[in-house]
Design goal:
The chain is 8% helix and 40% strand. It has three helices and 20 strands. The strands form four sheets. Strands 1, 2, 3, 4, 5, 6, 7, 11, 12, 15 and 18 form an eleven-stranded mixed beta sheet that branches. InterPro entries: Fumarylacetoacetase-like_C (IPR011234), Fumarylacetoacetase_C_sf (IPR036663), HPA_isomer/decarb_C (IPR012684). It comes from Heyndrickxia oleronia.
Length: 248
């Protein structure tokens, strides 16, 4: 099942897809164009992986990591499907990153990789925009790069884990203004989903609503104001965002 969170006529609803429309949790059936899409999950801790695809690390002139390069993101960064992402005026290189998101469904501590999928509630899509101009130094590599407001569109759907037979073999694609610019497969991850759950839960407790953004493959290119960017993952959906000027 695919579920969403939407705003409709001043209220927030959970919704499911039905016959090409949205069925709200009060059973009304409405057009998808009538709502404001929200992040499909109210987040707790948001983990993100850097350089989890060797070909992406290579295109950025980094070495592939020998253990997971994990950083945290603030909930301020999230926006829903069809949202607007602000690009600062003073930057030269801001690129998209199509990523599979793992949503944790129950408390996990010291989970083995063999048990890991039992703790997954479902999957969604993130476009984890990166602003390379803000890359600072070894000690603070991703704080400004990855935590600006509106720079992580996510959704539109949370897809139940049991509906994704093999999350480690899904095709990822990104289109900018309709042109295919990025294509890869989750099979290319350096650290797999089971490995990441085992790794994180070995030293901290994971809770329902925690999310793991699992990294992006090769093909991230610069974006400009006015670009419409679609990130899609096989079996999960298509996520649209538009780049606008940050005049704040």
């Amino acid at each position: 099942m695919k579920t969403a969170r939407v705003a409709y006529k001043g209220r927030i609803y959970e919704a499911v897809e039905k016959d090409g429309k949205l069925q709200l949790n009060d059973h009304r059936l409405i057009s998808m164009d009538e709502v404001v899409w929200l992040p499909p999950v109210i987040p707790r801790t948001i983990f993100a992986l850097g350089l989890n695809y060797a070909d992406h690390a290579q295109e950025l002139d980094f070495n592939a990591p020998s253990e997971p390069l994990v950083f945290l993101k603030g909930p301020n960064t999230l926006i829903g499907h069809q949202g607007q992402t602000k690009r600062p005026k003073d930057v030269d290189f801001m690129h998209y990153e199509c990523e599979l998101v793992v949503v944790i469904g129950k408390v996990a501590r010291n989970v083995t990789s063999e048990e890991a999928y039992q703790y997954v509630k479902g999957y969604t899509i993130a476009n984890d925009y990166a602003i390379r101009d803000y890359l600072e130094n070894y000690y603070r590599p991703n704080l400004r790069v990855k935590n600006r407001d509106t720079c992580t569109p996510i959704g539109p759907w949370l897809v139940d884990a049991e509906d994704i037979k093999d999350p480690m073999n899904l095709t990822l694609r990104t289109y900018v203004n309709g042109e295919l610019t990025q294509e890869g497969s989750t099979s290319q991850m350096i650290f797999s989903i089971p490995f990441l759950i085992e790794y994180l839960s070995s030293f901290m407790t994971l809770s329902p609503g925690d999310m793991i953004l699992t990294g992006t493959p090769k093909g991230a290119v610069n974006t400009k104001i006015g670009d419409e960017v679609i990130t899609e993952i096989e079996g999960i959906g298509r996520l649209l965002s538009t780049i606008v000027e940050d005049d704040g």
